[in-house]
Amino acid sequence: MSRLISGAAILLAVLTLAGCAQQSLTGDAYSRREARQVQHVQYAVVDSVRPVVIEGRTDGVVGAGAGAIVGGIAGSSIGGGRGSSITTVLGAVAGGIAGQRIEEATSRRQGQELTLRLDNGELISVVQEVENNQFFRAGDRVRILRSGATMRVTY
């Protein structure tokens, strides 16, 4: 039983670190490779804002891997002999699925779909993570920074 508790603690720690490692999708966050790169600046007015949910990671191996380890440890403590092998495998599979779902839920973010009217009259839309529960509002004057396929909206 203590192995199960230890495994659960390890899973929680790994998922917490994985959540911290997720790249921020706000307008104020930059990756290291984005620093010192040229960005094209445009100005616009927010036409409309719609709250959206940005789905969590489902491609990460951290949640599934940690869940499989914990599930395998838990399964191995059930039964004996051949039964123990079967419950180890079943525990690992179930733990992997549960870990993946936990990782998706913990990495889900509140977003906003912004419809913007550029100064040249063009209407564009972008989805961006909400930072500190502060939504843009219709009528706000904003700055748009573009670099390749990446766009961010700031004040």
UniProtKB/TrEMBL annotation:
UniProtKB keywords: Lipoprotein, Membrane, Palmitate, Signal
Location, primary (coarse class): membrane
Protein localization: Cell outer membrane
Membrane topology: Lipid-anchor
Domain Glycine zipper 2TM, first and last residues per copy: 63-103
Signal peptide: 1-23
Pfam families per record: Rick_17kDa_Anti (PF05433)
Name of the protein in its database record: Membrane protein
